[in-house]
Write a structure and sequence with these properties.
eight-stranded mixed beta sheet, binds coenzyme A
Amino acid sequence: MSTLRLEDLKQYSDVLRTRQGEPLNVRFIEPRDTEELQHYFRSLTTRSRYNRFFGAISELPQGLLSEFLDVGARERFTVVATKMVDGFETIVAEARYALHAETSTLEFGLSVDDRWQGHGIATALMKNLECRAAALGAEHMFGDTLRSNQPMISAARKSGFAFVNHPDDWKLVRFDKEINVAPKDIPCASWRLAALSRQAESPSASV
Ligand SMILES: CC(C)(COP(=O)(O)OP(=O)(O)OC[C@H]1O[C@@H](n2cnc3c(N)ncnc32)[C@H](O)[C@@H]1OP(=O)(O)O)[C@@H](O)C(=O)NCCC(=O)NCCS
């Protein structure tokens, strides 16, 4: 499954648009983002952090921080959406996704800076993730959220996800979407290239 060369893809970033048309840059996280990423999580409201991690944390614990920064390890990836604020590239959203090759699924979680919520960023980011999922050969993408997390449940529903019970935890609900579209209309330039290179390598590949 891992025919993608991450080094080749790192040079690409995708431009997403907020509902108001403002551009956001989406790219893999890099070691230089460490402080900014922690600042981003510290700046989230307590509720947003709780909804993201299903527990009370004030910042990423060291082990989790290392995992966030280790892009591609065990088919897990972190992307950040950034915009320029007062001359600084500032993180306004993040997403982490994992490819489960054995089930052809892509699992993800994400968050948006509270000051930027309600601007369509999660919607745009999920479309971008859908493209990445297709490029990786996933047939479904899914995420888990607290049953009490109405914003995420509404956002997922609006983006075409269906809901099922979580297999192990009654406090969570799983949202799932079949990936059955070619990613050509989705802003995910780097991963379209990846999909093309996979097709070239393996004519029988589905994406
Ligand atoms: C859930 C979350 C990611 C949504 O991000 P967002 O960028 O604000 O979402 P969007 O602007 O794309 O909104 C899409 C839809 O979600 C729903 N929604 C978003 N915020 C909402 C809120 N506060 N209350 C109710 N519905 C909401 C709406 O249906 C919205 O569509 P509309 O604006 O056309 O009505 C964001 O609130 C967040 O980061 N929360 C904290 C972390 C978290 O809960 N992560 C999920 C764990 S997987």
